[in-house]
# Entry
Amino acid sequence: MKELNLLLLSSEATLTYEALLALAAVLILGLFAGRWFEKIKLPHITGYIVMGVIIGLVLVVVNKGDLMHHLEIISSIALGFIAFGIGQELEFGKLKKSGKEVVVITLIQAVAAAGLTILGLLVFGVSLPIALVLGAVATATAPAPIMLLTRKYRAEGPLTDTLLPLVGMDDAVGIVLFGVLLSIANALNLGGSLSVVDMLSGPLLELIFSFVVGAIVGYTTALIIRAIKSSDSGKEEVYLGASLTAVMISVALSRMGLHINGFEIHLSPILTPMMMGVVLTNSVSRVKAHEITMTVERFTGPILIAFFTLAGAELVVAFANNADVNYGSIIGITAIYIVFRTIGKIVGSSFGAQLMKSHPNVRKYLGITLLPQAGVALGMAYQAKTDFGEDGITILIVVLIATLIYELFGPIGVKYSLEKSGEIHKD
# Structure
């Protein structure tokens, strides 16, 4: 028996170190793919994802797709840092000027994306429950490529100032809308009655507790940083250590959820660290907030390369694990989803910007910058798969294919918009 246990332990240890080797390959190959794509005038993020797809295909061929599970924590931490970075950009001084504009545009483009996607799917014969869920998923925008590109190119201007807070708020709206529409779709599938309280309680509790937990972690971290004198030679180590700890706590709590007297509350893996970043940034001086940003940026580079490369690999492995589906009809549904979500994002953003008399660059280009889609959308799709059975698998595959397309071409649209609006300040 002891020999068997030792053999099992050895096998698990081997798999762990195989995952470490895979991570090493992901980092170096993703790095060079990103550099090569920049040489041909394409965003480095697209290069990371393409290399990830290639790595994913190799893992599937050699039957090592389960390595992705061991690397999931890397993606979770990276997403935490991305959300934290968005929160750092949300200074109250800036929000006072553009807060109302951002809220109105966010709501209009989210409703437009969901509404047009649902309408388009219904017109082409997709069932109402599937159309409702995919409409809710259509609201989500991936903050990762937007955050990385705006920082890499040191983007500044009206479009960037509107885009960054909008992306964070967009996910909050998407979570609520998804919770409501998923409840309606479930009721339609099961033939049950609809309760407004049941539809709203889950998503609203997730938002409230995500904000509260993030705020507590952020303020506690701010107290630590405020105690460090500006003349302290080791301040950067403290800034990085405190920020890293705060992100890890936010990520861990959001993945674990809260359990209070047998009542389970989910936390958003994006909104929790984002709120932590908001509170931290607005609880310290502007100088310290800037120093924190610069310190964390130097640390997160390799993590973000791994995140985007792993994203490409994870999509391929997910396809391989759900191969027994009718791809003929699914490709048609995916095409409809992509077309109508794209129209909804662009038209909704333009209409909202015109309504708020935003800067011309915001009216022209904001919708294109909101097309990338990844983490939050996939989380919604996996939830739908759990609740919907066979229809849930259809939803998951549609979102997987759409995500791959949006992640490959979305960053190109973001870079194009920033260039055309004259907000790129890369040396």
About this structure: The radius of gyration is 21 Å. The mean pLDDT is 80. The first strand starts at residue 258 and ends at 260.
